[in-house]
Amino acid sequence: MSHATLPVDDLHRNVPPYDHNPSAWSQRIPICILAFVAAAISTHLSLYQWGLIETAWDPFFGSGTADVLKSKTATQMYAMLGIHDAALGVLAYLGDAILGFAGSARRWQYRPWLVILFGIDVIPLGIVSVVLVLIQAFIVGSWCFLCLVTAVISLILVYWAWDEVRASLTYLWIVWKQNHDSRLLWDAFWGNRCEAIDRAAETLLSRGTA
Amino acid sequence: MWGRVVEIMTAVWLAISPFVFRVQGSESFVLIDSLVALLVAILAGLSYWHPTRHAHLLNLVVASGLTLWGRFAEIPPPPIHQNHIVVGLFLLMIAIIPNDASRPPLAWRSSAGSH
């Protein structure tokens, strides 16, 4: 396939098995907004853990938030990581927002490294959130409302981000399957271009939707 | 170039951090944070000039140093040093964002247009 034959609106093609483009701005902007909201919540919790504010807001569990944030488990995590868990949350959510915003509407093909980095930030964050909720339930024995809100946001982010990560991984898999050339796979990962790479993308795009 | 704008905003946050974290009495924190912030902003600014368009990648080195300083200068790290860790790791993520991140890479632009 010649480069010149690609239509100009190629950026916005749907990626099977989805009936949408997972890298479209309409897919990614909500992720960024939600990640910023979670970052703001985590900042509030961090300020409390750092002792810069007196109380953390909690409309349902009263002193539960304080019990969770100042718990022995939280202290142990701080001693191990050197940073409070809420501050790590700020970092991770800001990372989600920034890495979600970077790249064009076809970054699943043009910058797979960025999509995979985004996935590495989003997906483990969802798992960690679930673990932290389990710790609240079974170890600390108290609940923190804002922590639960951020955990729910993390899971929504995983759900929303997965289609794009899957598109990139499938594309790289097709590059490998068609060529069995690690150098070509490396080039595809970094968004370099050649005919074999174009052919792999076209193979993915020409598949039927589910 | 929004990645570079975020780097400059992060540099501003770093420069005011000693005052937010109430350690403005320590000259070393104010001085080091200000100098590191200035360096980050300069490297981000240089990325706007074509001959030095990759200068933002040097922020990876600055960010790594800031993170290590925050983690190991005092154990366990007090809030101001935790801030250094967060800012350092955040800069590591930002510094790898290409200058024209919202557009396709150059190799793809001829056919895909400049959306």
Count of runs of 4 or more consecutive helical residues of chain A: 9
Biggest interface between protein chains, with counts per chain? A-B, 37 and 35 residues
CATH topology of chain A: de novo design (two linked rop proteins)
Per the principal axes of the C-alpha atoms, what is the gross shape of chain B? elongated
Give the terminus-to-terminus CA distance of chain A. 26 Å
Count the E strands of chain B.
Answer: 0
Q: What is the architecture of chain A at the second tier of CATH? A: Up-down Bundle
- Beta-sheet strand percentage of chain B? under 5%
Please name the fourth-level CATH homologous superfamily of chain A: VKOR domain
- What is the number of E strands of chain A? 0
Low-confidence stretches of chain A: 1-5
| pLDDT < 50 stretches of chain B | none
Summed up, what is this model?
The complex is a heterodimer of chains A (210) and B (115). Chain A has helices at residues 25-49, 64-69, 72-81, 85-101, 107-110, 112-140, 145-179, 182-189, 195-205.
Give a verbal description of the structure:
The complex is a heterodimer of chains A (210) and B (115). With 210 residues, chain A is mainly alpha-helical. Chain A has one domain (15-205): Up-down Bundle (de novo design (two linked rop proteins)). Chain A is built from nine helices and no strands. Chain A has helices spanning 25-49, 64-69, 72-81, 85-101, 107-110, 112-140, 145-179, 182-189, 195-205. In chain A, helix 1 (25-49) runs antiparallel to helix 4 (85-101), helix 4 (85-101) packs antiparallel against helix 6 and helix 7 packs across helix 9 (195-205). Chain A starts with 24 loop residues before the first helix and ends in a 5-residue tail after the last helix. Chain B has 115 residues and is mostly helical. Chain B has one domain (2-103). Chain B contains five helices and no strands. Chain B has helices at 2-20, 27-46, 59-72, 79-95, 106-112. In chain B, helix 1 packs antiparallel against helix 4 (79-95). The radius of gyration of chain B is 16 Å and the shape is elongated. Chain B starts with a helix and ends with a helix. The mean pLDDT of chain B is 90. The chains are: A mainly alpha (210), B mainly alpha (115). Chains A and B meet through helix 4 of A and helix 1, helix 4 and helix 5 of B.
